[in-house]
Design goal:
Layout: E1 5-7, H1 17-21, H2 24-35, H3 50-53, H4 56-72, E2 75-79, H5 86-95, E3 108-112, H6 118-128, E4 133-139, H7 145-162, H8 164-170, E5 171-175, H9 181-189, E6 192-195, H10 209-217, H11 222-237, H12 243-256, E7 261-266, H13 272-286, E8 294-299, H14 308-313, E9 318-327, H15 352-369, E10 374-381, H16 384-405, H17 416-425, H18 432-445
Parallel strand pairs: 2-3, 2-4, 4-5, 5-6, 7-8, 7-9, 9-10
Antiparallel strand pairs: 1-10
Helix pairs in contact: 2-12, 2-16, 4-10, 5-10, 5-13, 7-8, 11-16, 12-16, 13-16, 17-18
Bound molecules: 5-phosphoarabinonic acid (PA5).
5-phosphoarabinonic acid (PA5) binds near residues 147 and 203.
């Protein structure tokens, strides 16, 4: 299997090799604490050995569910938020044809439950009105407001459209094994279900059915995807100084020198949602106890025409990690134009990717010159195996990096605050006292 690579070469001059290597003992200790289950949040370490533990039978069962569903429907609404949404979308968009979703061929995947936009739902239901659709509803707790609202709407719509019995065959629920409203409902209605293991938190769950069923529904090879993740697992577990540990140590060394924001940059529009997934993984895992690198993302070259100025010359607190894709799937060459009004004939005959690669190189050199330390992750190409490797690499590096920071990388207590305020403002039963208090503050906010 072609392996993804990590290079911290362009951080020299910002942190020394010694600065990075001096963190290795701490990083190794953090890695060891994950391996032997003594880290903070050690009841959420199920992701660590998951790729090698998944059986072929289990993957075949997911593939069969996807196959059966695709006989009934040609649109699937994947309902979920945060870790129950971003991983699946990241992998699907990285592997999909950028325009095939506009055709009628194959399965179209659309997403709900990740916002509370009224017009979004009106327009979605309008779109679904004349479609044969099914629902893959994902919620570990089974009680998260955004997906619960979306499921209520779309379940009712589907039942009215095709009847309760057929709707029941078009809905798959992915949730906790025993607890939560979604589990209760799935049992009542007899939906096909998959379990999100107790010991795997949302943002580490893309290699469970949370990611696997939507990815299989989108037509991608989940066996190769898991093989990629297992390859990286094996590589990291058997090498004490692996690339995840190197990445965790490098970003920690930079953080210690005041580089408190990390930009994950790509030069391939298909990777936009990989960045969104990564932002959640690192943001929710590390941002606590007033600590943590702020994870931000940019899509290049697009954002060089918006964020590029700030990156080049704004306050010097940015580090940048570029995901580079070595080989493109297709060749497109720039044509010659006899008039040459745009003066681009010097590019005639060159592949688009050659121009993109020079933009990438030029950007990295410019950013280093401008005071932004630069790391690079190279994917030989975009396919199920390399994306599987990338996912596991980032998960492991996050576990190590969060543990080095001294926080529990596997909880997210801060996420509750907005929910409590929202419930109080909406007069949820049980929130009476908080409702009274928060309403006194509303005038100052509005
Ligand atoms: O990473 C996490 O744990 C969160 O982002 C959750 O995935 C998110 O809040 C959705 O939770 P649930 O799956 O319980 O609906």
């Amino acid at each position: 299997m072609k392996k993804i690579e990590f290079s911290p070469k362009q951080v020299n001059g910002f942190v020394s090799d010694n600065d990075i290597k001096s963190l290795y003992p701490e990083a190794k200790k953090a890695f060891q604490s994950l391996k032997n289950g003594t880290s903070k949040g050690n009841d959420f370490l199920g992701w660590l050995r998951l790729p090698s533990e998944i059986t072929d039978e289990f993957l075949s069962d997911i593939e069969n569910t996807a196959k059966e569903l695709s006989k009934r429907v040609n649109v699937i609404v994947v309902i979920g938020i945060g870790g129950s949404y971003l991983g699946a979308r990241a992998v699907i968009e990285a592997l999909s044809d950028s325009f095939s979703s506009y055709d009628n061929e194959g399965m179209k995947i659309i997403y709900a439950g990740h916002n509370i936009g009224e017009d979004y739902y009106h327009e979605m239901m309008n779109y679904l009105n004349n479609k044969e659709f099914g629902i893959c509803v994902i919620s570990k707790s089974g009680t998260t407001t955004e997906p619960a609202i979306a499921f209520r709407l779309l379940k009712e719509m589907l039942e009215q459209k095709v009847g309760k019995a057929e709707a029941g065959k078009r809905i798959v629920a992915i949730t906790d094994e025993k607890k939560g409203a979604l589990r209760t409902l799935a049992l009542q209605e007899g939906y096909k279900t998959y379990v999100i293991p107790d010991n795997i938190g949302g943002r580490f769950s893309v290699l469970t059915p949370v990611g696997l069923l939507p990815i299989a529904l989108a037509g991608f090879n989940i066996k190769k995807f898991i093989a990629g993740a297992a390859f990286m697992q094996n590589d990291c577990m058997n090498n004490e100084e692996n690339i995840a540990l190197e990445y965790a140590s490098t970003r920690s060394a930079l953080y210690a020198k005041g580089y408190i924001i990390e930009l994950l940059a790509n030069f391939n529009p298909k990777l936009h949602f990989i960045t969104e997934w990564w932002k959640q993984l690192y943001g929710e895992s590390e941002g606590k106890e007033n600590k943590g690198i702020f994870p931000a993302g940019v899509d290049f070259t697009t954002d060089l025409h918006s964020m590029g100025q700030y990156i080049q010359q704004g306050p010097r607190m940015l580090m940048e990690t570029v995901i580079s894709v070595d080989k493109q799937k297709y060749e497109v060459k720039i044509p010659t134009d006899s008039a040459n009004l745009d003066q681009l004939n010097f590019l005639a005959g060159k592949r688009i990717d050659e121009v993109n690669k020079m933009a990438e190189l030029g950007t990295r050199i410019a950013h280093v010159d401008g005071g932004v330390p630069n790391m690079e992750i190279v994917l030989p190409e975009l396919n199920e195996e390399t994306i599987g490797q990338l996912i596991y690499f980032f998960e492991l590096a996050c576990g190590i990096s969060g543990s080095m920071l001294g926080v529990n990388p596997f909880d997210q207590p801060g996420v509750e605050d907005y929910k409590n305020n929202m419930f109080a403002l909406l007069n949820k039963p049980g929130y009476e006292e908080k409702s009274r208090k928060i309403k006194e503050r509303v005038d100052n906010v509005k």
